[in-house]
Amino acid sequence: MNLIKKTAIALSLFAFVGSTAVLAQTKEPVKTTVKKDAKKVEQKANTTAKKMDAKATKDLKAVKMETTKKADVAKKDVKATKKDMTSKANTTKKEVKNTTVAKTSTAGTYNGHKVYVGPNGGKYYINSNGNKTYIK
């Protein structure tokens, strides 16, 4: 705002000096030309101030829009990260469950294969295809 006031003062001073030079050439009264020039300068200052205020509000709105967009993007990223983390946690839980069903102990041999005892007490061996074959 100080810049606008300084500009208005400088313009009015310039207008006053210019009007005295013009007045020397014409015989118009000094008071009317000074008043006219002062009104013109005041109008210019007002329009300049209005333009600057409009520009400032436009810039402020643009900054607000940009920050809200960035915040929305950040929220989406956080949600995506949470989903990824929960899915990874679920897969690791499944993997842990699968690994706990491991073979517990051996109980000798059967037809040249190691015999294993399952978690419920069943006895089996791994055949040549890699499948479990239970023993009665």
TrEMBL record:
Q: Where is the signal peptide?
A: 1-24
Report if keyword Signal is assigned: yes
Looking at the record's lineage, which domain of life comes first? Bacteria
Sorted keywords for this record are:
Signal
Its recorded name reads Colicin import membrane protein
Upper taxonomic lineage: Bacteria, Pseudomonadati, Bacteroidota, Flavobacteriia, Flavobacteriales
